[in-house]
Amino acid sequence: xxxxxxxxxxxxxxxxxxxxxxxxxxxxxxxxxxxxxxxxxxxxxxxxxxxxxxxxxxxxxxxxxxxxxxxxxxxxxxxxxxxxxxxxxxxxxxxxxxxxxxxxxxxxxxxxxxxxxxxxxxxxxxxxxxxxxxxxxxxxxxxxxxxxxxxxxxxxxxxxxxxxxxxxxxxxxxxxxxxxxxxxxxxxxxxxxxxxxxxxxxxxxxxxxxxxxxxxxxxxxxxxxxxxxxxxxxxxxxx
Length: 239
What we know:
- With 239 residues, the protein is of the alpha/beta class.
- It has helices at 3-13, 34-39, 62-66, 84-94, 97-115, 133-139, 143-155, 178-185, 213-224; strands at residues 28-29, 32-33, 73-75, 78-79, 125-128, 165-166, 189-190, 201-209, 229-237.
- The strands form three sheets. Strands 3, 4, 5, 8 and 9 form a five-stranded parallel sheet that branches. Strands 1-2 form a two-stranded antiparallel sheet. A two-stranded antiparallel sheet has the order 6-7.
- The protein is globular and about 50 Å long.
- The model has no long low-confidence stretch (mean pLDDT 87).
């Protein structure tokens, strides 16, 4: 057996530890064992428009009934609880790319089920939520782009990172209430090539959805540039 064949056999037959509990098991699923997969904080009931967690399944939450967001729907399969409240910051701030790949695959598998429905709206393009160039230079990468790129490969959809730009460096959103977040984001985004968005159905990609203010402002900008619709795809949702 040649060296390359030996390497492939070893790689395919050795047990890999689960990313979460570190146990070695054959029952692997995207790098985690089935027990850990089952224990992830999956959404049970949520608003169909903004994915806000609700105690009971409901079509729309009170906020969306009163003042619906610019995006037409949000697909957010999990809640921002343990272990996601550890995995996402490790990926977001410390570039643990294996966690990012895991999160993208979990989101992609959930989306594959959603997109297989007869009434599903399949987007023409995936767009990562952009960071301001100065902030991205400080961090070194944009976690939303990393997620979008992995999603695009798995779902076989095109991804563009140049059609939505962040032109105003806002203060950090953490710690701000919903109204302050909306004020903070006014005029933060622009579309440099609106002709390429005309009539397109888009999906905005981000890691965590909190109040939805960032995603709503980005969606308003895209719709004003001529997009036909914008939906939101995120890994996790905070209450």
